[in-house]
């Protein structure tokens, strides 16, 4: 049975994202060649422009995919580490997100090239979905009296921003493995300031 035009377009888009991800991880955004990238998956530069507008649009799609995977991975790590304790889950998620800065693909594409090319990560659509998830967690913790009375959006923005900026710091450091424990300790200490007195 022949594939529909929509199926072909979705397949081409997936191929280009995969090829972009590989090229950006191996060579970095600036050195990645769009001609090589498209040729590697048997497509033309026109297919790239049709699907993403330009190289920057492809990077945005790759960053969105990886950032979504990072959020899902952090959520799973938080759930595994906390055994139903929502506060510990939030701390574990934040620490996991920061630790992903050691992953070479995450480091280069999301934390180094992403901000340099796409601008402020806090304005990326993928970061907004992370922010909403954090806000829901904060609201649950407020409802249970775990946190001090605080605006949930403000707390979520500060927690998300702290984890993101800690990851950016680790990624940009000359010694990321030495910086990582400092970043995680500071994130946990800052977050703990939100806890209600017991």
Give a structural overview.
Keywords: DNA-binding. Residues 10-70 form the HTH tetR-type domain. Pfam families: TetR_C_41 (PF21351), TetR_N (PF00440). It comes from Ensifer adhaerens. This protein is an all-alpha fold. The protein has 9 helices and no strands. The N and C termini lie far apart (65 Å). The model has no long low-confidence stretch (mean pLDDT 91).
Strand and helix layout:
Blueprint: H1 5-27, H2 34-40, H3 45-52, H4 55-82, H5 86-99, H6 104-118, H7 125-143, H8 152-172, H9 176-192
Nutshell version of this structure?
Residues 33-52 bind DNA. With 198 residues, the protein is mostly helical.
Key structural traits:
HTH_TetR, 9 helices, 198 residues, mainly alpha, TetR/AcrR family transcriptional regulator
Total helices: the number is 9
Helix share bin: over 70%
Distance between the terminal alpha carbons, to the nearest Å?
A: 65 Å
Shape: elongated
The counted number of beta strands is 0
Largest sheet: none
């Amino acid at each position: 049975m022949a594939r529909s035009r929509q199926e072909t377009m979705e397949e081409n888009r997936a191929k280009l994202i995969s090829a972009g991800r590989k090229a950006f991880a191996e060579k970095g955004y600036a050195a990645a060649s769009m001609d090589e990238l498209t040729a590697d998956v048997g497509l033309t530069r026109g297919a790239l422009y049709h699907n993403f507008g330009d190289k920057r649009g492809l990077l945005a799609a790759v960053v969105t995919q990886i950032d979504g995977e990072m959020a899902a991975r952090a959520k799973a790590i938080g759930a595994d580490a906390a055994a139903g304790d929502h506060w510990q889950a939030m701390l574990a998620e934040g620490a996991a997100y920061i630790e992903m800065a050691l992953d070479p693909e995450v480091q280069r594409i999301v934390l180094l090239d992403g901000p340099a090319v796409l601008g402020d990560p806090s304005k990326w659509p993928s970061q907004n979905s992370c922010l909403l998830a954090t806000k829901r967690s904060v609201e649950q913790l407020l409802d249970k009296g775990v946190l001090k009375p605080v605006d949930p959006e403000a707390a979520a923005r500060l927690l998300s921003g702290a984890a993101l900026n800690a990851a950016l710091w680790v990624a940009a450091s000359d010694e990321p493995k030495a910086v990582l424990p400092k970043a995680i300790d500071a994130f946990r200490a800052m977050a703990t300031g939100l806890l209600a007195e017991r």
